[in-house]
Amino acid sequence: MELHYSDRNLELFCHVAGLSREDQIVLTAVRDNVHPLIPWLTDRFYEVLAEEPEIKPYIEGRVEQLKKTHVVWLESLFAGDYGVDFIKRQEKIGETHVRVRVPPLFVAASMAFLRGALPPVLVVNVPDAKQAMLATASVLRLLDLCQYLIDRKYAEVLMDNLGISPVLLTRLQTVGKGLALAS
Ligand code: HEM
Fold this sequence. Notes:
With 183 residues, the protein is mainly alpha-helical. The chain has one domain (8-170): Globins (Globin-like), CATH 1.10.490.10. The protein is built from ten helices and no strands. Bound molecules: protoporphyrin IX containing FE.
């Protein structure tokens, strides 16, 4: 029950991550347990972001609007459809953050916040312990997929700005001083 995409890199990601149609079923099954907690989780998320002086200017004056988009996005993780439209949505989110110049560090830290916050929400609110465990694994895989898709947009902009190809980017990312393996 693998997910199929026309993008070879996505196929590889899902294969290695073990992200499949099973995850869609697992996450849809816990949707009603999680939905009531999403506004609370979102409030907590924006409290933490606002505590960081470097992040605060990016969200100041638009927190209520951002919370609304964040609630919709979090709900989409439990909507059980990770097909082409879901992928396009994450790519659009990546483009938006590039456009408003949110550094990738902030996105990575936010994803880490969610990886820490969602498992306890599932453990406490999904009555069946096995289902909670499976949903935790699924949502962590899915967050990684979202982050990969958003990160790719940052990488695309970097390649555009440097005028380099994906192959050259990978080469530059993997050949470091004193790190090179014999090849
Ligand atoms: C888990 C990480 C994050 C997710 C999933 C996320 C999600 C979203 C979504 C769904 C939108 C609407 C985008 C659109 O419709 O094109 C958005 C917009 C935005 N996000 Fe995030 N966000 C994340 C992290 C952050 C962080 C850390 C910041 C601030 C430092 C931030 C600042 C913004 C801003 C300023 C906008 C509005 C852009 C505009 O005015 O069009 N986001 N975000």
